[in-house]
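Propose amino acids for all 516 sites.
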């Protein structure tokens, strides 16, 4: 089958029939998801319940489409266009067509598309395995039949429509209370529905927050840029390079302006100020601060701050204390869940941040030879990305070993940035926007001055939507790679996704605060 698809892809569309075109299209989408898309898939949350309901409703309508034929035939009988004697045969025919439709269309489409029925396609949903990778066609067919088609068919047969609705409501209540929002059948099959990015779809362009329209290609692939306002040094717990190494890399890339925004630390700024003159690169003092808003974890970038202010030293110390406390609780939670004892000293030795993340725990236990046959760890060793799969199952929000860190309030963080002469810019704004427009409106009312629009993690549609938000709220626009080093090797310094033509917006932001 693979060779057939490869041969088909070499042909131009005019040489292919509709079936072949569909095969090529579905295989390309599947290949795109397997290579890169799964990294940008998000677990279903309450914010996506409406999308999931609408997708289910659309799939149900398609599944029961033959009933519309029955209604039409009934109307024709009442009008005398079809003999009454055909009522019973037509009823049996309709019943048979409904059965065929229920057990074939959605299951086959899901298997062919790698987890997307028509409803899921329209609402950017996809059925995948626990590790967010594509699952087998057999599992996808089984999920549609055992989870939807068979219960609906049998309950309608024996209990009429009341039984069907009772099952649907029970299933909905189950996914509401489950921490990962999975349905009953997902629990048995090890599948789940995720929200995915559709980078291949065309979107209507929205206007940018600039007097000039910013020309943007339909797909942006690492455009050349001269500014990167979101870089991490080894003063961040997950950064690899020291400050001078970052300046050397920026110089090789041809960057003219950079900002190092370490997690809850301003130490890099003092060194960067000296490096700026040495490497002839303009430097903007920066920091990335963790905070919370209505229970959600957010990050805010602070630019043009007074890095020598004592308040940042206090914030860093408090952050280190919180992280160490949460780390010890995380270790305890994992020990209680797994029955595996961890040596805390091994984690904290030569660990200047005193932080034990879920990723560190997963890597530690999976690398231990004496735990090779442990029943909890054995299935993960068979996966393509065992550490990431384990983190997803055990340490993310709602997982059994997740520990919430109580960060400062968003309002307080914004005030601190402003009091130190800085500008507050919302980082990871896409994730905030996904929670709903009301959320974003409330967050922006706290005094946020700008939005980080251009990053390698956003596609054209998402950046365009954020540009519109920036224009509507008269906010500044920034661009950053969120470069860390080896932790995210696919991202290089300067990879901001900002087209050269759009840099005027970024430099407008810089000039407004350098002169003002």
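Proposal:
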């Amino acid at each position: 089958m693979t060779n057939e698809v490869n041969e088909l892809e070499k042909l131009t569309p005019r040489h292919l029939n509709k079936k072949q075109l569909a095969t090529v299209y579905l295989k390309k989408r599947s290949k795109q998801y397997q290579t890169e898309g799964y990294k940008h898939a998000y677990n279903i949350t309450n914010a996506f319940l409406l999308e999931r309901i609408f997708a289910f409703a659309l799939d149900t309508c398609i599944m029961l489409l033959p009933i519309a034929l029955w209604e039409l035939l009934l109307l024709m009988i009442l009008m005398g266009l079809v003999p009454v004697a055909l009522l019973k045969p037509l009823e049996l025919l309709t019943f048979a067509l409904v059965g065929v439709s229920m057990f074939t269309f959605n299951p086959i489409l899901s298997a062919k598309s790698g987890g997307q029925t028509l409803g899921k396609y329209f609402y950017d949903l996809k059925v995948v395995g626990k590790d967010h990778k594509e699952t087998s066609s057999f599992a996808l067919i089984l999920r549609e039949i055992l989870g939807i088609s068979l219960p609906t068919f049998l309950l309608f047969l024996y209990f009429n429509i009341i039984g069907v609705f009772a099952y649907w409501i029970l299933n909905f209540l189950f996914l509401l209370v489950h921490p990962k929002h999975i349905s009953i059948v997902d629990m048995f099959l090890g599948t789940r529905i995720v929200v995915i990015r559709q980078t291949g779809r065309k979107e209507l362009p929205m206007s940018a927050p600039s007097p000039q329209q910013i020309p943007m290609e339909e797909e942006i692939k690492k455009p050349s840029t001269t500014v990167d306002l979101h870089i991490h040094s080894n003063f961040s717990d997950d950064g690899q390079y020291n400050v001078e190494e970052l300046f050397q890399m920026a110089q090789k890339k041809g960057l003219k302006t950079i900002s190092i925004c370490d997690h809850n630390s301003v130490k890099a700024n003092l060194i960067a100020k000296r490096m700026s003159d040495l490497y002839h690169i303009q430097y903007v003092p920066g920091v990335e601060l963790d905070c919370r808003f209505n229970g959600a974890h957010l990050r805010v970038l602070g630019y043009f701050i007074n890095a020598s202010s004592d308040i940042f030293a206090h914030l860093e110390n408090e952050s280190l204390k919180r992280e160490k406390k949460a780390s010890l609780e995380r270790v305890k939670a994992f020990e209680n869940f797994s029955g595996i004892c961890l040596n805390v000293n091994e984690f904290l030795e030569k660990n200047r941040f005193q932080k034990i993340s879920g990723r560190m725990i997963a890597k530690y236990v999976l690398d231990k030879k004496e735990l090779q046959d442990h029943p909890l760890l054995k299935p993960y060793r068979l996966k393509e990305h065992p550490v990431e799969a384990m983190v997803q199952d055990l340490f993310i929000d709602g997982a059994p070993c997740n520990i919430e860190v109580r960060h400062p309030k968003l309002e307080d963080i914004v005030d601190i940035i402003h009091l130190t002469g800085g500008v507050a810019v919302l980082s990871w704004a896409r994730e905030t926007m996904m929670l709903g427009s009301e959320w974003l409106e409330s967050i922006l009312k706290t005094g946020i001055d700008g939005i980080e629009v251009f990053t390698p993690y956003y596609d054209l549609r998402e950046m365009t939507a954020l540009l519109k938000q920036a224009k509507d709220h008269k906010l500044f626009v920034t661009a950053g790679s969120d470069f860390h080093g080896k932790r995210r090797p696919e991202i290089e310094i300067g990879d901001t996704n900002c087209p050269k033509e759009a840099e005027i917006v970024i430099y407008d932001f810089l000039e407004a605060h350098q002169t003002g």
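The longest helix spans residues 137-177. The chain has three domains: 36-195, 227-309+420-514, 323-394.
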